[in-house]
Amino acid sequence: MTLIDGKAVAEQIKKEIAEEVSRIVEAGGKRPHLAAILVGHDGGSETYVAAKVKACEVCGFKSSLIRFEDDVTEEELLAKVRELNNDDDVDGFIVQLPLPKHISEDKVIETIDYRKDVDGFHPINVGRMSIGLPCYISATPNGIVELLSRYNIETKGKKCVVLGRSNIVGKPMAALMMRKGYPGDCTVTVCHSRTANIAEECRQADIIIAALGSPEFVKADMVKEGAVIIDVGTTRVPSTKTKSGFKLTGDVKFDEVAPKCSFITPVPGGVGPMTIVSLMKNTLLAGKKEIYK
Ligand code: GUN
User: Tell me, what's the pLDDT at 293?
Assistant: First the structure.
């Protein structure tokens, strides 16, 4: 069994990005600039955005953090999005989700210029991804594909079961695993809360990508010997063993599943660290105007 070390891969990629940024800047090019809009003071969002700003620093990017209180109106927020769309210094930007209930996330996402949508959430990027055109791919699926590729995990002709059908993970993940080329060329089954026999579907899988948000859902008797297991779950489960009082728990019952696997990602330290790196990769592409001129 090989433990997939997302933390180490993420550090390596950030180093590669920083080296490329140095070369760009030394050659007189523009330092990539990522802006992030954060609304309110949600603990999780504060942590994520702080980590994104820190990663920008490590990669040698310029970053801007734009804050609004959670009583900001939808129109005020949309006005800022339009301003960033038109700001030539900003290569890419994100609006951290979730947003307060009185603001339509769909409307905000659709207002972002798809050419600066480094989250890959805009329908144009989602659509282009699903038909295999160059685009920004959203962070988690992009990070998973990168892990599969850095560990040379065979995907061609394999049966891949994706657990979960969210717009951010399950759906794009399924599209990427079935696309032509590597990593891809899988036969993909997407399972969700209404799937008739998830355990049986999982037992058929060469690769399981678990993104249900259901702690320790995948048990040993659902996994074929030699399977590849990618665990996207990050549920905070109360724990007496940690200082914070909770433990980040994946969708896979790691201790009993790991011995059966050829490869498995741990939680934490597997997929998680790769997601921010994916955003950094997209920001570098945006800075280089590599996808959209
Ligand atoms: N909230 C949780 N994950 C994400 C993400 O990848 N991007 C944004 N903008 N918000 C999030």
Answer: 86
